[in-house]
Fold this protein.
Amino acid sequence: MPDAKLNDPTTENARLDRVLSPILAYGARHYGEAITQYAHAVQCARLAQEHGCAPAMIAAALLHDVGQFIDDAGNKAEQDGSDGLHEETGAAFLSPDFGPEVTEPVRLHVGAKRYLCAVEEGYRAGLSTASELSLQLQGGPLAGDAIAAFESEPFFADALLLRRFDDAAKRTDWAVPPLETYRPLLAALLLPAPA
């Protein structure tokens, strides 16, 4: 008789499989960048580790673009010139399993790009071609009251830090630990399973 726990969607392994499966299934895509989305994810996580970040920030760095793979959001900019809102989709996808210390930086990382374009001289000039295209579709740099509103977000500093990792994690010559090495870190951050 098969073990019922193996098919139980509330088990730790099943929950982690659900979270990681989009990256494993679609991570070979590039979405206009020189590296794959899989490489981008693990590079982001490695940058967060090297920076001495808390586990939640490492998880946010690893998972920040998971929304790209839901409803093909990652192809929206190049294929039909629209914003796939991957930050919102990704945060919603992660919210059953992780708390706001993971999901909020994910939700805010696009806003962080828009914020930095507005307030930091030279930041926009350093964006990749794909990031510049998505910036235009995401509403461009923040302006007026939107800047102060973004600064008042509880996870403002984490979102900016995640954005820095996001921008830097596009190296074609950097081998970093694979996705599976982050399972224990992610497992330790899982919310209690639903009853």
In short: The radius of gyration is 17 Å.
